[in-house]
Write a structure and sequence with these properties.
four-stranded mixed β-sheet, 28% strand, 368 residues, alpha+beta, 15 strands
Protein backbone atom coordinates (compact mmCIF):
# COMPACT_ATOMS: atom_id res chain seq x y z
CA UNK A 1 0.00 0.00 0.00
CA UNK A 2 1.48 3.37 -1.06
CA UNK A 3 1.80 5.99 1.63
CA UNK A 4 0.41 9.49 1.36
CA UNK A 5 2.96 11.66 -0.47
CA UNK A 6 2.48 14.60 1.89
CA UNK A 7 3.03 12.34 4.88
CA UNK A 8 6.11 10.86 3.22
CA UNK A 9 7.74 14.30 3.00
CA UNK A 10 6.31 15.41 6.33
CA UNK A 11 4.50 18.49 4.96
CA UNK A 12 0.93 19.76 5.05
CA UNK A 13 -1.30 19.46 1.99
CA UNK A 14 -1.19 23.22 1.52
CA UNK A 15 2.62 23.40 1.63
CA UNK A 16 4.23 25.69 -0.95
CA UNK A 17 7.01 24.75 -3.39
CA UNK A 18 9.79 25.98 -1.11
CA UNK A 19 8.49 23.98 1.85
CA UNK A 20 8.26 20.83 -0.25
CA UNK A 21 11.72 21.32 -1.66
CA UNK A 22 13.18 22.01 1.80
CA UNK A 23 11.55 18.88 3.24
CA UNK A 24 12.83 16.75 0.36
CA UNK A 25 16.34 18.17 0.63
CA UNK A 26 16.48 17.28 4.33
CA UNK A 27 15.19 13.73 3.83
CA UNK A 28 17.39 13.10 0.76
CA UNK A 29 20.46 14.01 2.76
CA UNK A 30 19.39 11.72 5.57
CA UNK A 31 18.33 8.58 3.72
CA UNK A 32 20.46 8.46 0.56
CA UNK A 33 21.85 4.89 0.38
CA UNK A 34 25.38 6.08 -0.44
CA UNK A 35 25.55 7.98 2.84
CA UNK A 36 26.13 6.54 6.31
CA UNK A 37 22.79 5.49 7.80
CA UNK A 38 21.00 5.66 4.44
CA UNK A 39 17.90 3.64 3.58
CA UNK A 40 17.29 2.69 -0.06
CA UNK A 41 13.58 1.89 0.35
CA UNK A 42 12.81 5.14 2.15
CA UNK A 43 14.87 7.08 -0.35
CA UNK A 44 12.85 5.65 -3.25
CA UNK A 45 9.57 6.61 -1.55
CA UNK A 46 10.90 10.11 -0.86
CA UNK A 47 11.91 10.53 -4.52
CA UNK A 48 8.53 9.26 -5.68
CA UNK A 49 6.67 11.73 -3.47
CA UNK A 50 8.89 14.66 -4.47
CA UNK A 51 8.56 14.00 -8.21
CA UNK A 52 4.78 14.27 -7.93
CA UNK A 53 4.46 17.13 -5.46
CA UNK A 54 7.16 19.26 -7.11
CA UNK A 55 5.33 19.17 -10.45
CA UNK A 56 2.24 21.41 -10.55
CA UNK A 57 0.34 19.28 -13.07
CA UNK A 58 1.02 15.98 -11.29
CA UNK A 59 0.29 17.50 -7.90
CA UNK A 60 -3.03 18.93 -9.08
CA UNK A 61 -4.14 15.57 -10.45
CA UNK A 62 -2.87 13.78 -7.35
CA UNK A 63 -4.82 16.17 -5.07
CA UNK A 64 -7.99 15.65 -7.12
CA UNK A 65 -7.90 11.95 -7.88
CA UNK A 66 -5.17 10.46 -5.71
CA UNK A 67 -3.51 9.46 -9.00
CA UNK A 68 -0.78 10.87 -11.21
CA UNK A 69 -1.14 11.92 -14.85
CA UNK A 70 -0.19 8.44 -16.15
CA UNK A 71 -3.02 6.79 -14.22
CA UNK A 72 -0.82 5.07 -11.69
CA UNK A 73 -2.52 4.85 -8.30
CA UNK A 74 -1.14 7.40 -5.85
CA UNK A 75 -1.61 7.96 -2.15
CA UNK A 76 -4.77 8.22 -0.13
CA UNK A 77 -4.58 4.61 0.97
CA UNK A 78 -4.79 3.15 -2.56
CA UNK A 79 -2.41 0.45 -3.72
CA UNK A 80 0.17 0.88 -6.41
CA UNK A 81 3.09 3.20 -6.96
CA UNK A 82 4.66 5.78 -9.24
CA UNK A 83 5.98 4.83 -12.68
CA UNK A 84 9.66 5.77 -13.06
CA UNK A 85 9.89 4.59 -16.66
CA UNK A 86 10.05 8.15 -17.95
CA UNK A 87 13.22 9.13 -16.06
CA UNK A 88 16.66 9.22 -17.65
CA UNK A 89 18.85 8.29 -14.68
CA UNK A 90 22.22 7.91 -16.40
CA UNK A 91 22.24 11.12 -18.44
CA UNK A 92 20.44 13.14 -15.78
CA UNK A 93 23.06 12.72 -13.08
CA UNK A 94 26.00 12.93 -15.45
CA UNK A 95 24.91 16.41 -16.50
CA UNK A 96 24.36 17.59 -12.97
CA UNK A 97 20.55 17.70 -13.29
CA UNK A 98 17.67 15.27 -13.38
CA UNK A 99 15.16 15.08 -16.21
CA UNK A 100 11.66 13.63 -16.42
CA UNK A 101 9.22 13.40 -19.28
CA UNK A 102 6.32 15.73 -18.81
CA UNK A 103 7.96 18.03 -16.22
CA UNK A 104 11.01 20.18 -15.43
CA UNK A 105 14.07 19.01 -13.47
CA UNK A 106 13.60 21.79 -10.91
CA UNK A 107 15.37 21.23 -7.63
CA UNK A 108 17.43 18.16 -8.57
CA UNK A 109 20.61 19.92 -9.65
CA UNK A 110 21.17 21.94 -6.48
CA UNK A 111 19.96 19.16 -4.18
CA UNK A 112 22.31 16.50 -5.54
CA UNK A 113 25.21 18.93 -5.90
CA UNK A 114 24.79 19.55 -2.15
CA UNK A 115 25.08 15.84 -1.45
CA UNK A 116 27.76 14.86 -3.95
CA UNK A 117 29.36 18.13 -5.12
CA UNK A 118 28.00 17.42 -8.62
CA UNK A 119 29.16 18.54 -12.02
CA UNK A 120 28.19 22.10 -11.19
CA UNK A 121 31.25 22.36 -8.95
CA UNK A 122 33.83 24.95 -9.96
CA UNK A 123 37.55 25.28 -9.44
CA UNK A 124 38.26 26.56 -5.96
CA UNK A 125 39.91 29.89 -5.46
CA UNK A 126 43.41 30.09 -4.09
CA UNK A 127 43.31 29.93 -0.34
CA UNK A 128 43.50 33.27 1.44
CA UNK A 129 46.08 33.44 4.23
CA UNK A 130 45.00 32.55 7.74
CA UNK A 131 44.21 35.26 10.27
CA UNK A 132 46.39 35.62 13.38
CA UNK A 133 45.14 36.63 16.83
CA UNK A 134 47.47 37.93 19.55
CA UNK A 135 47.16 39.81 22.86
CA UNK A 136 48.90 42.99 24.01
CA UNK A 137 48.96 44.53 27.50
CA UNK A 138 49.22 48.25 28.32
CA UNK A 139 48.98 50.28 31.52
CA UNK A 140 46.34 52.87 32.39
CA UNK A 141 48.42 55.86 31.26
CA UNK A 142 49.12 54.21 27.89
CA UNK A 143 45.41 53.60 27.48
CA UNK A 144 44.86 57.37 27.85
CA UNK A 145 47.77 58.55 25.72
CA UNK A 146 48.17 55.70 23.22
CA UNK A 147 51.13 53.36 22.87
CA UNK A 148 53.24 51.25 20.54
CA UNK A 149 54.17 47.60 20.83
CA UNK A 150 56.41 45.29 18.85
CA UNK A 151 55.42 41.64 18.78
CA UNK A 152 57.22 38.58 17.47
CA UNK A 153 55.28 36.32 15.12
CA UNK A 154 56.22 32.95 13.66
CA UNK A 155 54.02 32.22 10.67
CA UNK A 156 53.95 31.52 6.96
CA UNK A 157 55.28 34.32 4.74
CA UNK A 158 55.92 34.54 0.99
CA UNK A 159 58.93 32.43 0.02
CA UNK A 160 61.84 34.73 -0.87
CA UNK A 161 63.42 32.08 -3.09
CA UNK A 162 60.51 31.69 -5.55
CA UNK A 163 58.63 34.91 -4.72
CA UNK A 164 55.54 32.86 -3.90
CA UNK A 165 55.25 31.08 -7.27
CA UNK A 166 56.07 27.63 -5.87
CA UNK A 167 58.49 26.86 -8.72
CA UNK A 168 62.27 26.74 -8.70
CA UNK A 169 63.55 30.02 -10.19
CA UNK A 170 64.25 29.69 -13.92
CA UNK A 171 61.88 26.77 -14.37
CA UNK A 172 58.93 27.05 -16.75
CA UNK A 173 55.44 25.73 -16.25
CA UNK A 174 54.07 22.62 -17.89
CA UNK A 175 50.62 21.11 -18.26
CA UNK A 176 49.60 19.37 -15.06
CA UNK A 177 49.97 15.60 -15.62
CA UNK A 178 47.27 14.80 -13.06
CA UNK A 179 44.37 16.81 -14.54
CA UNK A 180 45.79 17.31 -18.06
CA UNK A 181 45.39 21.06 -17.74
CA UNK A 182 41.72 21.05 -16.67
CA UNK A 183 42.41 22.14 -13.11
CA UNK A 184 39.73 19.68 -12.00
CA UNK A 185 39.46 15.99 -11.30
CA UNK A 186 36.21 14.33 -12.38
CA UNK A 187 35.16 11.10 -10.72
CA UNK A 188 32.13 9.21 -12.03
CA UNK A 189 30.29 6.83 -9.71
CA UNK A 190 27.27 4.61 -10.11
CA UNK A 191 24.44 3.85 -7.74
CA UNK A 192 21.03 2.22 -8.04
CA UNK A 193 19.75 5.53 -9.47
CA UNK A 194 22.35 5.61 -12.25
CA UNK A 195 25.67 7.43 -12.67
CA UNK A 196 26.71 10.80 -11.30
CA UNK A 197 29.88 12.85 -11.50
CA UNK A 198 31.82 14.51 -8.72
CA UNK A 199 34.25 17.30 -9.61
CA UNK A 200 37.00 18.49 -7.29
CA UNK A 201 40.01 20.79 -7.55
CA UNK A 202 43.16 19.07 -8.75
CA UNK A 203 45.38 18.48 -5.70
CA UNK A 204 48.56 18.68 -7.79
CA UNK A 205 48.16 22.09 -9.47
CA UNK A 206 45.57 23.55 -7.06
CA UNK A 207 43.20 24.26 -9.94
CA UNK A 208 45.70 26.16 -12.13
CA UNK A 209 46.04 23.44 -14.76
CA UNK A 210 49.82 23.78 -14.84
CA UNK A 211 52.75 23.01 -12.59
CA UNK A 212 56.42 23.92 -12.57
CA UNK A 213 58.88 21.40 -13.98
CA UNK A 214 60.66 21.59 -10.63
CA UNK A 215 59.20 22.70 -7.33
CA UNK A 216 60.90 25.38 -5.27
CA UNK A 217 63.70 23.87 -3.18
CA UNK A 218 62.88 26.14 -0.22
CA UNK A 219 59.10 25.87 0.08
CA UNK A 220 58.50 22.53 -1.75
CA UNK A 221 56.04 24.21 -4.13
CA UNK A 222 53.81 25.85 -1.53
CA UNK A 223 55.05 29.37 -2.23
CA UNK A 224 55.27 30.05 1.53
CA UNK A 225 57.72 29.31 4.32
CA UNK A 226 57.50 29.70 8.09
CA UNK A 227 59.57 32.56 9.36
CA UNK A 228 59.89 34.76 12.45
CA UNK A 229 59.07 38.42 11.99
CA UNK A 230 58.46 41.53 14.11
CA UNK A 231 55.36 43.64 13.71
CA UNK A 232 54.96 47.13 15.16
CA UNK A 233 51.49 47.88 16.49
CA UNK A 234 50.12 51.35 17.17
CA UNK A 235 47.55 51.33 19.96
CA UNK A 236 45.27 54.37 19.74
CA UNK A 237 44.55 56.62 22.73
CA UNK A 238 41.22 55.88 24.37
CA UNK A 239 41.07 52.18 23.48
CA UNK A 240 38.81 50.10 25.74
CA UNK A 241 39.99 47.13 27.77
CA UNK A 242 39.40 43.99 25.68
CA UNK A 243 38.98 45.91 22.42
CA UNK A 244 40.53 44.38 19.29
CA UNK A 245 42.59 46.16 16.65
CA UNK A 246 42.53 44.82 13.08
CA UNK A 247 45.63 45.10 10.86
CA UNK A 248 44.69 44.08 7.33
CA UNK A 249 47.21 41.99 5.43
CA UNK A 250 49.42 41.37 8.47
CA UNK A 251 48.33 37.75 8.92
CA UNK A 252 49.74 34.69 7.18
CA UNK A 253 50.64 34.81 3.49
CA UNK A 254 48.01 33.56 1.06
CA UNK A 255 48.44 30.60 -1.25
CA UNK A 256 50.40 31.38 -4.43
CA UNK A 257 49.60 35.06 -4.66
CA UNK A 258 46.27 35.03 -2.80
CA UNK A 259 45.86 37.87 -0.35
CA UNK A 260 47.25 37.67 3.16
CA UNK A 261 45.15 37.10 6.22
CA UNK A 262 44.65 39.78 8.86
CA UNK A 263 46.23 40.31 12.28
CA UNK A 264 43.90 40.84 15.24
CA UNK A 265 45.36 42.34 18.42
CA UNK A 266 43.25 42.22 21.57
CA UNK A 267 44.36 44.93 24.01
CA UNK A 268 44.22 44.40 27.77
CA UNK A 269 44.56 47.38 30.16
CA UNK A 270 46.16 46.65 33.51
CA UNK A 271 44.15 47.82 36.52
CA UNK A 272 45.36 50.99 38.27
CA UNK A 273 45.30 51.39 42.06
CA UNK A 274 44.47 55.09 41.88
CA UNK A 275 42.31 55.52 38.79
CA UNK A 276 39.43 53.73 37.10
CA UNK A 277 37.47 54.42 33.94
CA UNK A 278 33.80 54.96 33.19
CA UNK A 279 33.10 55.76 29.57
CA UNK A 280 35.59 58.51 28.74
CA UNK A 281 35.79 59.77 32.33
CA UNK A 282 38.54 58.96 34.83
CA UNK A 283 37.40 58.31 38.40
CA UNK A 284 39.39 58.71 41.61
CA UNK A 285 38.67 59.14 45.33
CA UNK A 286 40.23 61.60 47.78
CA UNK A 287 39.89 61.46 51.57
CA UNK A 288 39.75 64.82 53.40
CA UNK A 289 39.59 65.71 57.10
CA UNK A 290 36.33 66.78 58.71
CA UNK A 291 37.58 70.30 59.34
CA UNK A 292 38.46 70.84 55.67
CA UNK A 293 35.00 69.72 54.61
CA UNK A 294 33.43 72.18 57.06
CA UNK A 295 35.71 75.18 56.61
CA UNK A 296 36.83 74.64 53.01
CA UNK A 297 40.31 74.86 51.56
CA UNK A 298 42.60 73.31 48.95
CA UNK A 299 44.09 69.85 48.46
CA UNK A 300 46.67 68.39 46.11
CA UNK A 301 45.40 65.53 43.99
CA UNK A 302 46.90 63.11 41.47
CA UNK A 303 45.66 63.10 37.87
CA UNK A 304 46.82 61.24 34.79
CA UNK A 305 48.66 64.43 33.77
CA UNK A 306 50.35 64.99 37.14
CA UNK A 307 49.44 66.78 40.37
CA UNK A 308 46.78 69.47 40.52
CA UNK A 309 45.30 71.73 43.21
CA UNK A 310 41.60 71.10 43.88
CA UNK A 311 39.55 73.70 45.74
CA UNK A 312 37.19 72.29 48.38
CA UNK A 313 34.27 74.61 49.15
CA UNK A 314 33.16 75.10 52.77
CA UNK A 315 30.38 72.72 53.71
CA UNK A 316 31.40 69.96 51.31
CA UNK A 317 29.48 66.74 51.99
CA UNK A 318 31.05 63.29 52.09
CA UNK A 319 30.59 61.55 48.71
CA UNK A 320 30.38 64.78 46.75
CA UNK A 321 32.03 64.66 43.28
CA UNK A 322 34.05 67.38 41.57
CA UNK A 323 34.62 67.50 37.82
CA UNK A 324 37.89 68.52 36.16
CA UNK A 325 36.99 68.97 32.48
CA UNK A 326 39.34 67.80 29.77
CA UNK A 327 41.44 65.60 32.03
CA UNK A 328 39.75 62.33 31.10
CA UNK A 329 40.16 59.79 28.31
CA UNK A 330 40.17 60.96 24.67
CA UNK A 331 37.38 59.49 22.58
CA UNK A 332 38.86 56.87 20.24
CA UNK A 333 36.79 58.32 17.39
CA UNK A 334 38.18 61.81 18.00
CA UNK A 335 35.01 63.28 19.47
CA UNK A 336 36.50 65.16 22.41
CA UNK A 337 37.92 64.14 25.78
CA UNK A 338 36.20 63.11 29.00
CA UNK A 339 36.64 64.56 32.49
CA UNK A 340 38.37 63.56 35.70
CA UNK A 341 35.76 63.00 38.39
CA UNK A 342 37.07 63.31 41.95
CA UNK A 343 34.87 61.84 44.66
CA UNK A 344 35.53 63.35 48.09
CA UNK A 345 35.08 61.23 51.21
CA UNK A 346 35.20 62.90 54.64
CA UNK A 347 37.53 60.97 56.90
CA UNK A 348 36.20 60.43 60.44
CA UNK A 349 39.03 59.79 62.93
CA UNK A 350 38.72 56.70 65.10
CA UNK A 351 40.98 58.05 67.86
CA UNK A 352 41.09 61.60 69.24
CA UNK A 353 43.48 63.33 71.58
CA UNK A 354 42.08 64.79 74.80
CA UNK A 355 42.32 68.29 73.37
CA UNK A 356 40.51 67.33 70.16
CA UNK A 357 37.81 65.59 72.10
CA UNK A 358 37.26 68.62 74.35
CA UNK A 359 37.00 70.93 71.33
CA UNK A 360 34.43 68.68 69.67
CA UNK A 361 32.42 68.46 72.88
CA UNK A 362 32.26 72.23 72.96
CA UNK A 363 31.11 72.30 69.36
CA UNK A 364 28.50 69.70 70.15
CA UNK A 365 26.85 72.15 72.50
CA UNK A 366 26.53 74.64 69.63
CA UNK A 367 24.49 72.08 67.63
CA UNK A 368 26.94 72.24 64.71
Amino acid sequence: MASNYYETLGVEKGANDDEIKKAYRKLAHKYHPDKSGGDEKKFKKINEAYQVLSDKVKRHQYDQFGRTFDGAPGGGGQSGGFDFSGFDFGEGFASGGFSAQGGPASGWEDIFSDIFGGAGARTQRKARGSDIQVDAEINFAEMVRGAEREINLYNRVVCDHCQGSGGEPGMSKKTCPTCQGAGQIRKTSRSFLGSFSQVSTCPECKGEGATYAKKCSQCAGDGRVKKERRVKIKIPAGIENGQTISLQGQGEAGERGARNGDLYVTVHVRANEKFSRKGNDILSTEFIPFTLAVLGGKIEIDTIDGELILKIPAGTQSGETFRIKGNGVPDISGRGTGSHLVRVVVRVPKKLSREQKELLERLQDTDI
